Amino acid sequence: MNEQQSQSILGNISPAKAIVKLAIPATLALLAKAIYNLVDTAYIGMLHSDLALTAVGVTVPLLLIMVSIENIFAAGAAVLAGRQLGAKDSEGASCTVTTIVGVSVLIGAVLCIGGIIFIEPLMRAFGASDASLPLAKDYAFWMFIAALANLPAQSMNCAARAESSVKISSIAVITGALLNVVLDPIFMFSWGLNMGVEGASLATTISQFVTFFIMTWFYASGRSIIKIKRKSFRPNRNLIKTVAVIGLPTAVIQICLSVAASLTNIAASGLPQSDEIIAAYGVVQRLILIGCYVVMGFMQGYQPVASFAFGAKNEDRFHQSVRFALKGSLLLTILVELIYILLSTPLILLFNQNPVIVDYGKWLLISQVALYPAFGLCYMMTITYQTIGDSRYGLFLSLIRQGLFYLPFILILPKLLGVTGIYFSQPAADILTIIVCICSIKSMKKIASANMAKN
After folding, report:
1. Closest by alpha carbon to 317, among 328, 325, 309?
2. What is the C-alpha to C-alpha distance for residues 188 and 161, in angstroms, rounded to an integer?
3. pTM for this structure?
4. Residue 165 contacts residue 225 (beta carbons within 8 Å)
5. Inter-helix orientation angle 373-387/419-454, to 10°
6. Which of 336-350, 369-383, 393-407, 441-455 shows the lowest per-residue confidence on average (mean pLDDT)?
């Protein structure tokens, strides 16, 4: 896509059409990314080992932490580069993205080495038992190797969305997902390499490196508006701090999801049939990621349009974008909620046929989405506060749903009510989240107008 086409999408066609045009391929790409986790879980279910499913469930918090670290810089760079493009500063956008991609490579290497060194205490911390620890370590090892590719790939993906080059981003992620579907059974089962759980993780890692190489080719070919080039690599404290501050709220959402998942596993570990509950929760978390990716894909269509309008100081277009994003996020989360509630049992049965795990999984899934619009509303407002330059309040919003509100409930209710306390924890947190978000909408609009006038 050339610069003129990008300007047309981000600045000229109606905000609703622009958001949908960018959101559809972004959502498809994220749903393809969800296949990485769902395919692994489905194939692992075919191993007919509840212990294997439990081991993979233990790694869910680790997965969310790594995604959150990716998002600190990738999401921040996307917002900042979008503002710079709106202000017609293409060179500044190139400097931002080049620097962040370079920093992502370094952080990926640190995560890879550190994760492998401390793999056993990490798995213990996330709820692995003596029985599930060996399989959890096998699965997590290749997740740490994948960090070498995932962090820079995510930064390049976000940069592509900031300039509205969503097609290449979608191609890269979908290609990796399809490859994962093919490689999983070859690596896992006895007729192939017979690697079991470790084979599932290795297949995913190879697929993620393919995604990274496709994005690297795109930028190396010179087809992008934002250029990644050696002379634009200018690491400095102010740039990295600015990007991190912008991206932190999005990352904190993922961190809170991870902490919440870990504490839920720990709460379950003290209950009867703990391995079955953790196995069911691991399946549910991967299903919930699909719902998250639907909302995140829509927000990835919204964010570049809103950032461009904010950078161009087009207040009317910015507020049109906000209104459409607010309605869209609520509609999508209600749709996800209805699908998951109506199909809760057959969805769990796709991954495990143990009636105990299916029953726990059904009620865990229903409880997680009973008030799912809270997630859409909170995430949309977090993104908007990032865009308008009030990252401090965006950070607060990112903390509330799975952090400030969920943690007290998950620490207390299971001790009082058993597994029923786990079921009630998320709806209780969502009620409080909705109240806070509704009370924040008017101030969000006022701050946006004031900051555009000031800047």
Report:
1. 309
2. 35
3. 0.74
4. yes
5. 30
6. 441-455
Task: Work out the angle between the directed axes of helices 90-117 and 60-86 (0-180°, nearest 10).
Answer: 170
Residues belonging to the chain: 455
The residue type at 109:
A
Closest CA to 55 of 144, 137, 136, 140: 136
Contacts of residue 399, defined as CB under 8 A and 6 or more positions apart, other chains included, come to 252, 256
pLDDT (tens digit per residue) in 202-218: 998 999 899 999 999 98
Spatial contact of 375 and 411, defined as CB atoms under 8 Å apart: no
The pLDDT assigned to 2 comes to 47
Q: What is the pLDDT of residue 9?
A: 65
What is the three-class DSSP state of 233? coil
Specify the pLDDT at position 253. 77
CA distances from 382 to 182, 280, 319, 409, 446 (A): 37, 30, 15, 23, 15
CA 165-208-127 angle, to 5 degrees, is: 125
CA–CA gap between residue 70 and residue 72 (Å, rounded): 6
Q: Specify the amino acid at residue 237.
A: R
CB 163 within 8 A of CB 224: yes
Cα–Cα distance, 82 to 164 (Å, whole number): 9
H/E run at residue 301: helix 274-311
Whose tokens are 């290749």? That residue is: 142
Distances (CA, A) of 310 to 6, 24, 81, 85: 16, 22, 12, 11
CA of 434: how far to CAs of 289, 337, 430, 441, in Å? 20, 15, 6, 11
What DSSP assignment string belongs to 126-164?
TT--TTTHHHHHHHHHHHHHHHHHHHHHHHHHHHHHHTT
What's the chain's Rg over C-alpha atoms? 21
The two structure tokens encoding residue 248: 């932190």
Q: Which residue's structure tokens are 């439990």?
A: 54
10 token code pair? 């981000």
* 193: its two tokens: 């390499």
By the 8 A CB rule, do 292 and 332 touch?
Answer: no
Contact 219, 163 (CB under 8 A): no
